[in-house]
Write a structure and sequence with these properties.
Blueprint: H1 3-15, E1 20-22, H2 23-30, H3 34-42, E2 49-51, E3 54-58, H4 59-69, H5 72-79, H6 83-86, H7 102-114, H8 119-133, H9 135-141, H10 145-150, H11 172-187
Antiparallel strand pairs: 1-3, 2-3
Helix pairs in contact: 1-5, 7-8, 8-11
Length: about 210
């Protein structure tokens, strides 16, 4: 997708959000062939719901697709100053400098090049596991941490609007953030039915 078209698509998705999208609309916005996206949905790589025989995506489900196609830097660059109004504050990018062993740096450069992405984007994908592992502890220590980690929110069922359980993922590094977020949200839901207390059996006295 040409940079100008990508910028327009990002602005449309994030600044002119709709309640739901057809599969073809998501494919067009993200620059994904409709056949490819349909195949990915069918094998569980993305969440969508069939409504009258047509796949439809909630806004957050469409954003999950987009965030696998575009880097966070591309999204923030396209949104410009408007990013602060649609993205959680802790998703803002911050430049940092680390001193790492040469072999680690070379590994990052090599893998990022093979995956046709930037070192920043590749490293962010790898560190999502780390961020999720410490979610319970850090969400209390760092205000806004949970919101940033779960963005754009847990994937929910289109019709019932309830969190869905995780599906097997083709690429754990790509989908672990979405799946972990769903598991956290689902664990906080109240039970679907009242819990029945089972009384212990009465003790019987043996007959003499």
């Amino acid at each position: 997708m040409p940079p100008a078209e990508r910028k327009q698509s990002i602005q449309t998705l994030f600044l002119q959000r709709a309640e739901s999208y057809t599969l073809c609309e998501v494919a067009r916005l993200t620059g994904t062939p409709a056949r490819t996206l349909r195949r990915e949905v069918a094998r569980g790589d993305h969440d969508a719901t069939k409504v009258r025989g047509e796949w439809r995506f909630l806004w957050r489900q469409a954003v999950y697709v987009a965030m696998e196609r575009w880097t966070l830097a591309e999204i923030q660059d396209a949104l410009g100053d408007a990013a602060a109004g649609v993205l959680p504050p802790l998703l803002a990018l911050r430049a940092v400098t680390f001193r790492m062993p040469e072999y680690v740096v070379l590994a990052l450069e090599t893998i990022a090049r093979e995956q046709r992405t930037t070192i920043d984007a590749f490293l962010y994908g790898e560190l999502i596991d780390f961020a999720g592992t410490h979610l319970t502890r850090l969400q209390d220590a760092i205000p806004g941490y949970r919101q940033a980690y779960l963005f754009p929110g847990p994937v929910v069922d289109f019709e019932t609007m309830k969190p869905k359980g995780p599906k097997p993922s083709r690429d754990v590094n790509v989908n672990v953030h979405r799946i972990f977020g769903e598991m956290i949200e689902r664990s906080e839901q109240p039970p679907n039915r009242p819990i029945k207390l089972v009384k212990p059996p009465k003790k019987t006295t043996p007959q003499k």
